[in-house]
Structures
1.
Amino acid sequence: MLAVELDGDAVRAKSGSMVAYDGRMTFKKLTGGGEGLRGMVTRRLTGEQLSVMEVKGHGTCWFADRATEINLVRLTGDRLHVESGNLLVTEAGLRTGTTFTGLRGASQGGGLFTTTVEGHGQAAIMSEGPAVALRVSDRHPLTVDPGAYVAHQGNVRQSFQSGVTFRTFLGEGGGEAFQIRFEGEGLVYVQPSERTTFAGEV
Amino acid sequence: MSGCPAAQGPVVHDPSSLPADDNVNAYTFCVELAGTQWFLQKGKMIAYYGTVEFDGVGHGRLDRLVRTSFHSPLHASDWVVAGGHGKMLLADRAFDVNSYDLDDGNLTIRSGNLLAFQPSLSLKQSIVPGFLTLIGTGKFVAASNGPVVFMEPPIRVDPQALVGWADCPSPCHHYDHGYLTGVLGGLRALTGVGGASGEEHQFEFVGAGTVLLQSTETLMPERAVGEVARGAGVPGGGPCGPEGGPGAGSRPSGQLGGLQRRFGL
């Protein structure tokens, strides 16, 4: 559960994620993720739906969603990539948008597009079990299972690698047929659980 | 916006700060590979640094491992060998994971709970259906629904809470005999009228050893451990007796699982 103290300022939260509040709060539905007309059209086209509300007022507001773990990420001008379904709360100073992810998104069942968060402030992302933040550097590239990937931030290049061999088709594959490789400088968040993906079956 | 007490942000791990063969948090385990190998269940790796290869068990150069580590190869197709250099994170559906050391010992564990083990241990199919036995010296990782509690026998445990046992000579069923044979209790158990307490049946352990319990009665999903060779006197080996010959669907022992099972169907 995430407690947010508001003093006249506003946060954006996933619609319906408020569980309790004290003080005075107003909840306003933001159409199209609060990204204006252009964002609305992009989201509709890409299918990366983001249903947000703006919470404004004085007091404390508590957010939670299906008992998932909540991880706070601080952004200082860099960019966070996260699936729209995993984004819970963003501060008012953060902008959200949509980008193309390519095969990585398709392999984890999240679609070809993902949500980006940019600016200065904190964002709360959800994961099944507490997420582990792993640092990626040039000396230490990281490889992640698509089903366990939650989010990444910083200047990170991702590439998709496949370990599919003829053995996979014999049913004796290594069980880790699809992986995402991260290189560059940044952080990757993984959850201690794997979503059911196509890749999980081979 | 100020968050929960832990608002200072997450702990960031890199290869040097990750522990070697220890838990990162209650749900994630880190394995250090330095040219060594680990066995893990398919699909339990969540991330790794370095160069790690995953190979299905039971072909080519890994065939020897099946002989030395899987004495019953019937379930070997559910396991992969991770080898190489680097650090690898393991996790299982956000369940608690813990590592245990065996020192020339034996431990029997529910098949769905075992996550990974070192090749110095050998994995055998227990004669108790649905359980696997690890024998030897080495480390293994097991998942449980909630933290694991270690108990000393003599003890009676709820079937759903049992994770496994080590060095125990006598796991057996125990029925609350007095209650079930009593007039009132018998009527209740037969008809369901009045309800049963739900605790008439337990597992009983006596002797020296350790019993592992999980702190919930929600079972982890079972994993198929493979069929046992059919034959009279083999528990779970199908009907035995005069008419119970080898079943029609049985395979000669020594083969890996059927094609359907390999594809997870």
2.
Amino acid sequence: MDGFADLIGGFGAAVSPENLLWALIGVTLGTAVGVLPGIGPALTVALLLPLTFKLEATSSLIMFAGIYYGGMYGGSTTSILLNTPGESASIISALEGNKMARSGRGAAALATAAIGSFVAGTIATIGLSFVAPFMVDLALSFGPPEYFALMVVAFTTVAAVLGSSVLRGLVGLVIGVTIGLIGIDVQSGQARLTLGVPQLLDGVDVVIVVVGLFAVGEAITVLASGERRSTVTPAAGSRWLSRSDFRRSWRPWLRGTALGFPIGALPAGGAEIPTFLSYSAEKRLSKHPEEFGHGAIEGVAGPEAANNAAAAGVLVPLLALGLPTSATAAVILAGFQNYGIQPGPLLFSSNNALVWTLIASLYIGNVMLLVLNLPLVGIWVRLLQIPPYYLYAGIAVFATLGTYAIGGSTVDLMVLYAVGALGFLLRAADVPVAPAVVGLILGPLAEEQLRRSLAISQGDVSVLWSTPLCIALLVVAVAAIVLPPLARIAASNKATRSRDRVG
Amino acid sequence: MAHNPVSTGRRRSAAAALLAAGLTVTACAPSSGDDENSASGEAAGWPSGDVRIMAPADPGGGWDQTSRAIQDVLGNQLDASVEVYNVGGAGGTVGIAQFVQNEGDADELMTMGSIMVGAIETNNSPVTLDEVTPLARLIGEYEVIVAPENSPFQTIDDMVAAMEADLGSVAIAGGSAGGIEQILAGLMAQEIGADPAAVNYIPHSGGGEALATILSGRVQAGISGINEIREQIEAGQVRALAVSSPEPIEGIDAPTLTEAGLDIELANWRGMVAPAGIDPEQEQAAEDALAEMVESEEWQQVLADRGWEDQFQAGEEFEQFLDEEQERIRAVLEDLGLVGS
Amino acid sequence: MSTASGLPDAVGSRRHGGSRVDVPSLALAVLLLVMGVVLAVDASGIEAPRGGGSVGPAAFPWAVAGVLLVLGVVLGAVSLRGRPDQPADPADAGVQELWPEAARRSADAPDDEPVAEPVPVGEERPPLLRVRPAVRVAVFAAGLIAHALLVNTAGYVVAALVLFVAVALAFGAPRLVRVVLVGLVLTLVIFYAFTVGLGLALPDLGGR
């Protein structure tokens, strides 16, 4: 494959002062809209993409690349600083990131997110340029049984986000699974748990649940706690990342990328599952597992990298197969068709100069994003010094705006409020909210793939372990459950023995 | 009344204008205030104000794209602004329930199609297409039956023979339950004298997802809109077995179902309706305007770019087609067990 | 961890001493039971289409309903027994502590940087609305509901302004006029940026 020469050609088309200006505008707009609480990347891209249609194709693509990555990055900023994620893929960053921000380390959290996004975005874009055909082969070997096995692996990571009480963690998880049941069952076309409300037939939008549980739920919690003034720790030190932060971040960046890109490239992989897997992996591999839950920088670096690598991974099936695998990707596909690009298996071989321009634009957008965002870190952190009454009033306005804009219905607003009240009750009962989002995402996928597998096999359960890939994934899942307790037992035996020897 | 994300409602005079920041100038004139019959010297007085088109789906889908294409072309043709807004959900049944509240206002239009006909049945929608004024069918897309590379089926006859021998052994992947692909699978079963409900149809929430399953080779066959899978056919990743059109499709080496001995023709069509109770003269004028739009070079270019087929049909002809289509789809869905008979 | 985690007075933090009834958990347990019953009733009404696969559309709802009921009973029992003040292993509290205060306790600045003390931000003036937390939650909720009712009738700017002012008052804003002005500027900027700039058709005055 002559990818390298094509890529150079792409850069040739993309790099001009005018195009760089469009890239800057794209990155700025993407970040600016993405940073609004409750407005996630999918809505950001849907809102901003039409703007690019007015430009000629090359400028349009380069501006689009900026918007895409900018929206992704902007979304993490609010998750970390305000604990108000606008999409499901950044809830994991919020877990540790918000803890860091509350204890005055917001700048470090944002910096590791920005650099991690850059590293992951760049590596994943290189992957997109050169290994897309191999990724496509991998993606195509995933049928329903393999997806079910992947869901089993993902469920085993839930343990990492369950928290200290297994009971309360499970409560959160099952509440999420229950919300996931709402709507028309894909396999049978039957309505489930819609209570006769037609707006619920399509299910409850994940974004609404995320915004409700986090932004609205947190606001009620703070109010009910009787706290008048929020207190934050002022940012400590002027550096974004200390040396120890960097030492603790770079491996999670790379591991997050390694998880995010391939899973993002799977037609039903998505960006959430790699963030769950990354968080779980970092918690297990960390030398400071006790810091998890109190602002461990690895817990921001890994999932953020995974999220952004998956964002580039999503482009693999989109460009190479014409498969839009996320809401964001569907909007992008419609955009491509506007320039006469028909993504599909012939796209790369037809040596479409525009495709390489797009890929070159992704590199440029990524660099631009880092350049724009590192200096902005200091400004974003000051968001925390806005008086809480303005801050929460603003969050409420944007959260309702984002919800209303998705479906244009006040029923969605009511669902948002109900989920917000639920989020408050969960917090009051010390039930973690993250597992609810995990259950909401994994539950329907696991059910769908299981039932689809069994339908194809006409009820023969052995289809679930019928291929080496299925077996390999299931082994990973079993190992994830069995190994940590075994390791703990082994470690405590060793400790006992050494104590015995000393004593 | 709900409002849309991502509408680009704009006056054509401002269409090309750009701010330095890349924002489009969209003269958002208040659309509610000027409903009195002031504008346009057109004889029948349509439109009387700004035209609003409801896309009864979320941004990005087929109805949304169709609505926005109409917005662009019709906006240039009429002396009025055309605004598109989305009311997504449940195959368009959420949208139509809201749309019928515009009774008597001919400036309010809605994009719809065969999917809505099916969704009204399967969702048991209280509001049906009897409560709107059909204007025209605009475009259509035919379906293609494909086999993955590793499938034993070389021709549609192989597939039919396998279905006759053991219906359950032929897993067919396609779009949503009760959607156009499952209806086609059910019609095939009917043609070979089998029970449509016993077809091993594997539904997916979208064409893209179904395509992934087809390409994984885990199913023996798949059904898809032609445009969604044309690239894969050309690249040899799937074999086209038959198409659902009356005539063979250019560039696709497969017979029509009728040629293969199955008397089936099925299109995923999209059209335009107005609310009930509008003035007959306005109805005629709106249909004339759509007819004029379809003739335009701009529209023909849109069709060519998107791979849509011109299936224009208006007035009585369309109303009759719509009645027959509702009847036919309802019957199949009953046979599939998706609608109580 | 009831005192340390700053549990809301409004929900009744009757857990001091570690043996009182844990009211929020009990409420959640009741909710789980209700959800389980609703789900079971719904599942019993699902008709599997003829010729459907081996696992029908009602199978998962039944299973989830069962789990909800079991968890509801267990959580109910645990909440009646009350909970100890501290988790068994504080180091393992994990992400369960989404409480802001929890993070402050464990402000873990890196070893090469000084540990900073939290400082209050915001104005020193007393809030306009001096009421109990439960009332402030009610004001917040009223703002949200009013927003949903107004957005399609009075238009976006009015609805969003009402929401902004209600939330700001609930959170202890000291000056009404300033809040209204800030809210007006914000909502107008949003309205024009989104309708004119991005083509998002938000309802204008009159709600269309």
